[in-house]
Specification:
two-stranded antiparallel ribbon, globular, about 10% strand
């Protein structure tokens, strides 16, 4: 099966990896019943239990999170309708898979219309991400303009006074998806991927003359998202009766990129690498790039710091400080200093999370985190040693860095080779 039960408790802490699921299923049964016409009746409390049970499965279905949970809940009810004892919990997974496969077999063409903070005086070339088509324009494509305007008027921006930002570049993302929720999720990830690549292309310098730390140590998204996102069908009409707004307190300013044509060429090269199906860890690359730009989108600097550290954990595939610091400091000549800085950042993160104390100079810390993360992103994307697998890159940056220790290891391996020959 595509879906399977997993334990969310580390194995050393439990003798029975299935215990959590069994306990939750037993409790769920107490909140369910069948009506006279054979329908499943339940109280709202069951949602908490089903949500916890949903956390005990793994799967690879690419659907919107709300859709996935709804179909899992439907699967629980369907299994209960067949067997009120829920004796075979795999029946829940089989029904869940059936529900998800139904969505994936019936795909519809959608187009997301949004805008990004690139000055529209220079337009990027058409791009492709995961097979989706991204087109950039100075104005909203005529096909979608009317339905988009109707939605904006019907559901005005809750932050009154804000409208589409001046000089922003409009972006359309065309794709196929099972439903409008999944289409929006996939399209926005494609937009985020492009924005994260632009983030790497723009040099971020400290400004010693700035009047506050946010400007002195910049770590904001360079290419921001526009205010509103609308989703449309192939005929131009809205895909659903609604739209999505970004939570903004003020309008952003569209950035003017120097040497735009050269930068855009580099964007294309980087995206070609991310789209290369021969790269076996492509999904991992997409995940860490999107994680990075999502962290920078956070307006609260403390929360941004937490998200940046999470991104560092994702890139290094570790959650213990020793491994993270070893892999990040690998690239630097003065590793002792870098390790000390990284340890300080880790300590600040722990104090913030566990003690709830705000640490000083969080803007400076965010700037440092961006330097480390962007260096790692470039290394993993460009892959200078042409490794085929993700774990090979991690093994490389986990290597010993003391020359004497490396020489000793080479001598030892030569002896091993001579012995086994």
């Amino acid at each position: 099966m595509n879906a399977k039960w997993v334990s969310i408790v580390p194995k050393p802490q439990t003798d029975n990896a299935d215990m959590d699921a069994k306990v939750l299923i037993e409790k769920i049964k107490a909140f369910l019943s069948l009506t006279n016409d054979g329908k499943v009746s339940h109280t709202i409390d069951v949602d908490f239990l089903v949500d916890a049970l949903f956390g005990n499965i793994s799967h690879s279905f690419i659907l919107d999170h709300d859709v996935l949970f709804r179909e899992f809940k439907n699967a629980v009810f369907s299994a209960y309708k067949t067997d009120q004892q829920l004796a075979n919990r795999n029946a829940i997974l089989r029904k869940f898979e059936e529900n998800c496969n139904f969505h994936l077999k019936n795909k519809i063409h959608y187009t997301l219309i949004t805008s990004i903070g690139l000055n529209s005086t220079s337009l990027p070339r058409r791009r492709y991400v995961n097979g989706y088509v991204l087109n950039f324009s100075k104005d909203i494509p005529r096909k979608y303009a009317s339905s988009r305007q109707n939605l904006l008027e019907k559901y005005p921006n809750p932050n009154s006074g804000l409208s589409d930002e001046k000089d922003f570049t409009f972006l359309s993302v065309s794709l196929e998806a099972a439903n409008y929720q999944t289409a929006y999720m996939k399209a926005m990830k494609a937009v985020d991927l492009v924005r994260s690549i632009w983030q790497l292309q723009v040099q971020k310098d400290m400004n010693i003359f700035a009047y506050n730390n946010s400007q002195k140590f910049p770590s904001d998204s360079v290419v921001t998202l526009g205010l509103a996102h609308t989703l449309h069908l192939s005929n131009g009409k809205s895909a659903w009766d609604g739209l999505w707004y970004e939570q903004k307190q003020s309008n952003d300013i569209a950035i003017q990129i120097k040497n735009f044509d050269t930068a855009d060429l580099h964007i294309g090269k980087f995206l070609n690498l991310l789209n290369n199906k021969n790269i076996k860890y492509r999904d991992f690359l997409h995940k860490i790039f999107v994680s990075y730009i999502n962290a920078l989108d956070q307006s609260d600097h403390e929360f941004r710091f937490m998200k940046l550290w999470l991104t560092l954990e994702l890139i290094t595939d570790a959650d213990d400080a020793k491994t993270i610091i070893k892999r990040v400091s690998f690239f630097y000549k003065d590793r002792a200093v870098e390790k000390a800085i990284l340890q300080s950042l880790r300590s600040a993160r722990n104090i913030n999370v566990h003690a709830g104390e705000r640490r000083p100079n969080v803007e400076l810390k965010n700037f440092q985190m961006c330097q480390y993360i962007e260096h790692l992103l470039r290394f993993f994307l460009q892959n200078p040693f042409k490794y085929e697998k993700h774990h090979e890159l991690l093994t490389f940056i986990s290597s010993k860095t003391e020359v004497s220790a490396i020489d000793d290891e080479i001598r030892r391996l030569k002896l091993v080779k001579k012995f086994i020959a």
